[in-house]
Structures are given as structure tokens and as C-alpha cells.
Amino acid sequence: MIPFRKMHGLGNDFVVVDDRQKTLGVTPARAAAAADRHRGIGCDQFIVLEQPGGEGADVFMRIYNPDGSEAEACGNATRCIAHLMMEEAGRESVVVRTVRGDLPCQRLPDGTVSADMGPPSLEWQDVPLASAMDTTHLPMTVGAVADPAACSMGNPHVTFFVGDLDRLDWQALGPEAEHHPLLPARANIGFAQVIDTDHIRLAIWERGAGPTLACGSGACATLVNAHRRGLTGRRARIDLPGGTLTLEWRLDGHVLMAGPVATAFTGEFDWDALAA
Ligand SMILES: N[C@@H](CCC[C@H](N)C(=O)O)C(=O)O
What is the pLDDT of residue 215? Predict the structure, then answer.
């Protein structure tokens, strides 16, 4: 049997397994089976802890979407895994390694966990987009929304700025936007309503996962894109369906994100039962 921990950040939920001993036999298909909300345990991302493979980090975090694709970044899982590692090490700060790089994290005095998600990539090749263009204004229309901005937080993000989120059926627009021909690696799609220069409401359609209650890297990308469009300053509170994240795009280029993390329950499963 494989022990797991069900964690979440603002309801963006994860099944976390510890494969630091390399015994679990994780494959993309098995990760997808475990993430399935009907036949598996159910989660937005299946997270695998591995040995960091070198100095400078406490753990390596591998991220699978429910469709079996591997993601380069996951902000909320970074904060959850940082919490786990801080408990394990008895420290108040750790470094989580991902395919994107090393992400320093710390526990804040109010008990929330912050992650330094590194600098965004702003060039069209790095998002990636299908051809050369200004990443602050993409020639992209999906239903009633148009003219989004894009950037990468290691994973690709597109942000549509909308007038009233409550009057937009954004879940109906997500699939077409995620698979738009301008997006060769697909993308996470944000629908953002700027309330004030330091306050954004955000809903996210996640690549490989669909609508989620929150997306940490999506919140980072939204602040970056909103600031580049002149809509906000470099700090904002971002309200998502599952709760609030605090964001700062520092002058050194790094994006800092803070918010709550929680463990919902723990349990055990085996791959054969999931596949049945
Ligand atoms: N929930 C995440 C993002 C997870 C990965 C994403 N679906 C992708 O494919 O890039 C977050 O909190 O950032």
C-alpha cells in the first residue's frame, strides 16, 4: 500500500506521495488514475516528492495534472510541500526544487507560507506562443473575451481582463482558450477582474485540470500581466474562488506569493485498485 497525504492551498487540492526512496513506480498514467475524482482519490494535481539530487534544495517536487501531463510549476503545491518539509526539518524556511528551478519558501508570522516563484518569462518564445508577438496583447478572441496578455511562471499562462467576472461563463470558455492555436504547449487561462490597483478577482481554467478553486502560478502571472498592462501596482491581494493570495512582483523581478496551506486527510492506496 502507498501512503498519501491530501493537501490543499485555497482548495487547489493535491494527492502527495513520497517517492524519495524510488520505490513507488509512479507513471503519468498512474498519476492520472490517482487524480481521477470518480475512480481514484481525486485531486487537481498529483505531487511526487523525490530526492533533490544535489545541494541547495530540501526536496524535488514533480507535478502531474489529472490528464497525466507533467507541469513545470505549481504555486499552491510548492507552498504545501514547503510546509511539509518545514515540519519534517523543524525549520521555518526550505527550498523546493522543481523542473523550473529552486523556489525558496518560508513560514510567515501569521502561519501562512510564502514561496518565491522566481522571475516570470515575458518573451513570446518562452510562454510559449506560436509566433512572434507582443505578449502584453495577444490577437486572441474566445467567445466574448479578447486581447489577453501572456507570460510564463515556468508554466504557460494567458490572462483575459474582464469587466465583471460574475457575468462571465468563464468555464465555458476555458477549453477553447486552453487549446487555442496560438498556444503550442496549451496554457492555464486566467479571467481577471481588476477591482483596484492592489486588488484583483481571478478565476482560473487550469491546463490539464479544468476549473480549480485556486491556482498559485496563475495568480503570479495575473499580477505580472496586470502590472505590465498598467492596471495595478506591483503588489496585490488576489481573490480566487477558494480564498485569497497575497502577491508581490519585486523590483528584482521575482514574484512572491503567500497564503494558507492545509492537510485534509491521509490514507493509503494501491495502483491495482485504482486501475480496476
Ligand atoms: N495549481 C497550480 C498549477 C498546476 C499546473 C498547471 N495546471 C499547468 O499545467 O501548468 C498552481 O497552483 O500553480
Answer: 98
Q: Is the pLDDT assigned to residue 276 strictly greater than 80?
A: no
The answer to pTM > 0.80 is yes
The set of catalytic residues is: 74, 215
Query: Does residue 246 sit in the same domain as residue 148?
Result: yes
Query: Residue 29 CA to chain centroid, in angstroms?
Result: 20
Q: Is 20 annotated as a binding residue?
A: no
Whether residue 124 is contained in a domain is answered as no
Provide the 8-state DSSP code for 166. Answer: G
CATH of the domain at 64: 3.10.310.10
Which residue has the CA at smallest separation from atom 3 of ligand 1?
A: 74
Q: Ligand 1, residue 204: give the atom nearest the CA.
A: 1
Domain carrying residue 95: 2-106+260-275
Q: Do 233 and 91 touch, CB atoms closer than 8 A?
A: no
- Structural domain count of the chain: 2
- Cα 251 to middle of ligand 1, angstroms: 24
Alpha-carbon distance of 58 to 46, in angstroms, equals: 19
Note whether residue 202 is domain-resident: yes
Q: Rg of the Cα trace of the chain?
A: 18
C-alpha of residue 195 to centroid of ligand 1, in Å: 24
- Convert the pLDDT of each residue in 175-202 to its tens digit: 999 999 999 999 999 999 999 999 999 9
Q: In the structure grid, which three cell numbers stand for residue 209, read together? A: 485540470
Q: Does the pLDDT of residue 86 top 70, yes or no?
A: yes
Structure ipTM = 0.99
Beta strands 101-107 and 93-98 are: antiparallel
Mutating to test ligand 1, I would choose from 74, 96, 247 the residue with most ligand atoms within 8 A of its C-beta, which is 74
Average pLDDT, the chain: 97
Per the domain annotation, does 134 fall within a domain? Answer: no
Whether 77 is in a domain gets the answer yes
pLDDT at 31 over 90: yes
61 and 10 in a common domain: yes
Overall size of the chain counted in residues: 276
